[in-house]
Amino acid sequence: MMYASIFQLYILSLMGNRLIITTVIKDRHLKKPMYFFLSNLSFKDIGHTTTFIPKMLLNYLSEKNSICFFCCIIQLCVYFLFGMTEFFIISLISLDRYLAICYPFRYATILTSGVCLKLAIGAWFGGFFSILYQQVLTANLPFCASNVTNHFYCDAGPVLKIAGGDTHLIEALGFLVAVVVSSLVFTLISYFFILCTILRMPSTSRQQKAFSTCASHLVVVSLLYGSACFVYL
Which range, 9-23, 136-150, 190-204, has the best average confidence (pLDDT)? Predict the structure, then answer.
């Protein structure tokens, strides 16, 4: 019964994110930078969940909870690729809000469709290169003492626990990536300038409108970075 529920939630997730992507592509009223970045987040969500849920369901159904070493490393790399890309895209949305509130008259000329496409491509490449060296080091560790991970997919912590050799460099790189490269600093700086601009607005209604455009993104930022810090730091 639990497997069926997880499968249904997975299908609903795929359908919901596909609907968002399709709507953004087809609706001309949504041809704006924020919605373009949101569609990238939806694509990321599809890839993120597909990285481990199908394999997890297959293991449950077959009652053979195993994965080959190469597949485990690939799963680990792809999982963190999508995870780090999410941080970069979240920072791009904060950049979008910063330009929209702090430079409203230049917003359309700065964030053109071409610039948005380049930023999105940069976010995906940034996610890839930020985790590449760490994953290469992990793949080259000796795994001789144990081949059993205490997790339902190949995550960094459980994999490093069963690895032989010195893992301090990998852990330090993971900490550096999570704190610095994850673009949290950039997001905080963007919202600092946004807050300063909003507080200088003479009209209370304009302040409330500006705050409302950032509220949902701030909730996502808080949940994302809060959960990441709790799990990985």
Answer: 9-23
Residues 6+ apart with CB under 8 A from 160: 138, 141, 167, 170, 171
Q: Which token pair is 188? A: 């905080």
Which alpha helices (DSSP H) does the chain contain, by range? 2-26, 33-62, 69-102, 107-110, 113-139, 156-161, 168-176, 184-199, 204-232
pLDDT digits (tens, 9 = 90+) for 65-93: 888 888 889 999 999 899 889 889 988 98
Euclidean distance between CA atoms 137 and 123, whole angstroms: 23
pLDDT at 22 over 80: yes
Task: List Cβ<8 Å contacts ≥24 apart for 134-142.
Answer: 134/80, 134/170, 134/173, 134/174, 134/177, 135/73, 135/76, 135/77, 135/80, 137/169, 137/170, 137/173, 138/73, 138/76, 138/163, 138/170, 139/73, 141/165, 141/167, 141/170
Neighbours of 202 (CB within 10 A): 6
